[in-house]
């Protein structure tokens, strides 16, 4: 429904979102390395680094030529693989627009931990709902879903530029596209749980992101844009202006 383009939300605690930039660079580099490789190498990467629930749950074993890392590592490694340019492009666009402010709110190291846990949570829920699946799960959508949830809790009132339905540019509060996106993921999980897209991975990331931002954000970083002061709030805090003597009808006293 909405493609994010830009948010008017400056950084307050960090000068450069280098973890976000590093994650984007890693995802893009790995995509091109695998996309340009031979089919056999690509297949080995997808099965060896992708998350395969049946393998992690010890229901089947991978052929030896596909074993690259211990199977539990795939809770993380799957999030750095993508199927095509639109898959990686969409995930990286969301990460670029919303990741920097989440990194700013959490700090570099905790943001990286946040990202990886959200990825793992997405894989875990996917595996819990389809424990016998032998299809590899790949993509950063679980981690990115966590970032979307965290951004919604941190900055729902910040204005963002989006393309509505892929063609209409709009500048609207962040809670509109992000809340609708989250509701869509939840609805699709109920309506199409066996779809080729893993809605469960998205929902797992959303839940993890919403919980983790509560405990990992910097001390003093507010939720729900509470630091934004509206004109109405300024008027209430300042109180009514002091009336002049002429307005009150009282005599003006002076001192000699």
TrEMBL record:
Transmembrane segment boundaries: 18-38, 75-99, 111-129, 135-154, 174-191, 197-216
Alphabetized GO MF terms: serine-type endopeptidase activity
Major place of residence: membrane
Membrane topology recorded in Swiss-Prot or TrEMBL: Multi-pass membrane protein
GO BP, sorted A to Z: proteolysis
One GO CC term on file: membrane
Record's keyword terms, sorted: Hydrolase, Membrane, Protease, Transmembrane, Transmembrane helix
SUPFAM superfamilies in alphabetical order: Rhomboid-like
Subcellular location field: Membrane
Alphabetical list of InterPro entries matching this protein: Peptidase_S54_rhomboid_dom, Rhomboid-like_sf, Rhomboid_protease_S54
Domain Peptidase S54 rhomboid: 73-218
Family: Belongs to the peptidase S54 family.
Protein name in the entry: Rhomboid family intramembrane serine protease
Source organism of the structure: Nitratireductor mangrovi
Lineage: Bacteria, Pseudomonadati, Pseudomonadota, Alphaproteobacteria, Hyphomicrobiales
